[in-house]
Write a structure and sequence with these properties.
alpha+beta, 9 strands, 205 residues, five-stranded antiparallel β-sheet, 5 helices
Length: 205
């Protein structure tokens, strides 16, 4: 009986401590530690063309007049103040009924971008437009803006050869929120590595 019990006990001990070690190794995993503080600076972006300015707007629900749009961030304010009257007019006349993101849940307000080349304004009204505008995701400002359109918030990051490794926050707007460890590649691909935490709360948007 003893000869049969000993291997069984040894196996049990091995599995027990092996499992604990696996859990501990995850807890002790080196997570990204760099913190990003977003500033409305045009120079934080490495854009795909000779753009001189861009801004992000949230549109109204009727989309009848671009003057009803709200500019939520300018990249950046000093550049905007020095634009010519013609350039400001080009901005003012540019509108969209779609966007690369959406606010006003459970209703819909499009979040879109308007950018200036030296002689024309362009609208950025889809995720593909935003990615084309960035070219590749190769600055932390672009990383932050890109993952926000994919329902993530940038908490901490580290730069890698493929792009970025990120601790990202999320909220399903209806009772659950948490953090994931994700990879963000230069081409915009986002790959979830694993969930780091989640918690429940009361209420839905």
């Amino acid at each position: 009986m003893k000869s049969y019990l000993s291997p069984f006990i040894l196996l049990s001990i091995f599995l027990l401590f092996g499992c604990d070690y696996g859990l501990d190794s995850k807890k002790n995993e080196n997570l990204p530690s760099e913190v990003y503080e977003e500033l409305p600076s045009f120079s934080s972006f490495n854009l795909s063309d000779e753009y001189i300015y861009w801004e992000i707007r949230v549109g109204n629900m009727s989309h009848q007049d671009s003057t009803d749009d709200e500019v939520v961030v300018r990249y950046d304010e000093d550049i905007f103040l020095n634009l010519s009257p013609v350039q400001k007019s080009q901005l003012a006349s540019t509108d969209s009924i779609t966007g690369f993101d959406a606010w006003c849940a459970p209703s819909f307000c499009p979040v879109f971008g308007v950018a200036l080349l030296p002689n024309e304004a362009i609208v950025i009204e889809s995720r593909q437009d935003l990615l084309s505008f960035f070219g590749i995701i190769d600055t932390v400002a672009e990383l932050s803006r890109w993952i926000s359109t994919n329902n993530y918030g940038l908490r901490k990051y580290e730069i890698t050869d493929y792009g970025y490794r990120v601790v990202a926050s999320w909220d399903n707007d209806c009772g659950t929120r948490g953090e994931d460890l994700i990879k963000v590649f230069h081409d915009g691909t986002i790959e979830k590595i694993r969930e780091l935490s989640s918690e429940s709360y009361n209420g839905c948007v």
